[in-house]
Amino acid sequence: MRFSALRSKDFVLYTAGNASAMVALWINRVIIGWLGWELTGLASWVGLLSFFLFAPTIVASPFFGVLLDRIDVRRAALVSQTVLATTVCILLALQLTGVLTIWLLGAIALVIGVTSSADRTIRFVLVPRIVEKEAIANAVAIHGINFNTARLVGPAVGGVLIHAYGTDIATMVNAVMILPFLTVLLLVTIRDRDGPKSEKKSFLRDFADGLKHAFSHPIIREAMILTCILSLSSRGIIEILPAIADGEFGMG
What we know:
This protein is mostly helical. It has helices at about 10-40, 45-70, 75-95, 100-125, 135-165, 165-185, 205-215, 220-235, 240-250. Helix 1 runs antiparallel to helix 2 (about 45-70) and helix 2 runs parallel beside helix 4 (about 100-125). The longest helix has about 30 residues, at about 10-40. The protein is globular, with a radius of gyration of 19 Å.
């Protein structure tokens, strides 16, 4: 079967819930960028908010990868999604009460950036443990399609919501779209790690071993270099679109 991973009901359920949460994540990035532009009118602040959302992925993700080998993955996923949902709800409350400032928005963006870096790592760990081993490659491919579809759809939906209903309603929709994934995480069956248990090493030793393996493996190394180039050259475009759309073209 071409889409062998879709034979797993748990994976289908996970993919559906994950799709909603990832679209919400990309809607949120547009909302934060637009709020930053509304509050300051400065492209520099919009860029800094984008940095807060993105930079933690580079710095923190490898450490979260080591940590996930030592803790319960389902619990970690529930914690990360709960933090994201709570942070978005706090943002909504600040908007509705009219007390949101650029400094509070910056703090919220940083919390979301750090939590999202953990959440992204958790998703990569979860997928191979939901499907059978022979379907892992297919599951990873579908997960990648899911992520990139959300990256295409989410900003467009966020822009339409802001234009039609304003940032308050957009943030409310954003919060609601995160919730289904929390339920999904409680329902899916997650297998234990495959293979024999390895000897326990220190956190930093495991971290160093991971780096050594990544840089010594030609395919992983080349993929990391390519991703780095794309990320530094074009990855942040979506987050700074509010400044371009309104500041450069005056289109709102």
